[in-house]
Amino acid sequence: MTAITLAVPSKGRLEELTRDWFAHRGLTITRPGGARSYLGAIEGLPDVTVRFFPASEIARELIRGNIDLGVTGRDLIHETSEAGPGSVEFVRNLDFGHADVVIAVPEAWIDVTHMHDLADVASDFRSRHGRWLRIATKYITITRQHFAKAGIAEYRIVESLGATEAAPASGVADIVVDITSTGSTLAANGLRVLEDGVMLRSEANLIVSRTADWTPERRQTLDALMTQLGD
User: Fold this and answer.
1) Are 38 and 17 spatial neighbours (Cβ–Cβ below 8 Å)?
2) Taking a C-beta distance cutoff of 8 angstroms, is the pair 117, 111 a contact?
């Protein structure tokens, strides 16, 4: 079997920008079944099957090796699994979908400007308030890894299912780890990114799975696709 599977985002601005990026390089992604279809193709490349998936699912399936290459955010690869970055190859930055995963604290915490300040706050938070420092986030894996590297262990993660930036104002959490493009939403909610609080800079990437079944024939199909995409 020589065919390979390319997964692209299934809806929204990310789908549109992905298809535009390929089209600009002479490769037209079609979706014959319409917006609800998960199956597509690239005109003139019968050995490349296109699947339309949510961006988070693309990250998971790339790591597992169930799809061969796909377009998704760097942040989702890092968040999906600690083994994620080692299971894939980031072959091309696509220059859209830019966003940073950041640590933001209330503006009122005027003495907390860097991670080492936050470490001091976390270490005595329990003695002052009778509970752990609470961090609201959707990025649990990234948060745990980053805080471990910073030597901060005295905290509790509050998994965010909605608007993370609203958690401190509502009393659900003390600080947040969130993704932001401009920081304006965080600022509007009275939050400030630490001076060294950028945990991960993310953007959309064309990513190849290292764990997929790469026979010489399938690798040849991938190489031919990459050649057509150019630099």
Assistant:
1) no
2) yes
* Cα(6)–Cα(4) distance, integer angstroms: 7
Q: Does residue 64 come out as left (phi exceeding 0), alpha (psi in the -120 to 50 range) or beta?
A: alpha
Identify the burial level of 183 via C-beta atoms within 10 angstroms of its C-beta, where 0-12 means exposed, 13-18 middle and 19 or more buried.
middle
Neighbouring-strand partners of residue 8: 52
What three-state secondary structure class fits 55? Answer: helix
- The reported pLDDT for the residue numbered 31 is 86
34: left (phi over 0), alpha (psi -120 to 50) or beta: left
CA 38 to chain CA mean position, Å: 21
Token pair, residue 61, equals 């399936």
Which residues on neighbouring strands pair with residue 134, listed in sequence order?
A: 156
- pLDDT for 1 equals 53
Residues 142 and 79 sit within 8 Å (Cβ to Cβ): yes
Would you say 40 and 51 are in contact if contact means Cβ atoms under 8 Å apart? Answer: yes
Q: What is the pLDDT of residue 162?
A: 81
Which stretches of the chain drop beneath a pLDDT of 50? none
Which pTM value belongs to this model? 0.92
Question: Burial level of 125, CB count in 10 A (0-12/13-18/19+)?
Answer: middle
Q: Alpha-carbon dihedral of residues 147, 148, 152, 156, nearest 10 degrees?
A: 70
Taking only the tens place, the pLDDT of each residue in 1-53 is: 579 999 999 988 999 999 999 999 999 999 887 777 789 999 999 999 999 99
Enter the DSSP assignment of 118. H
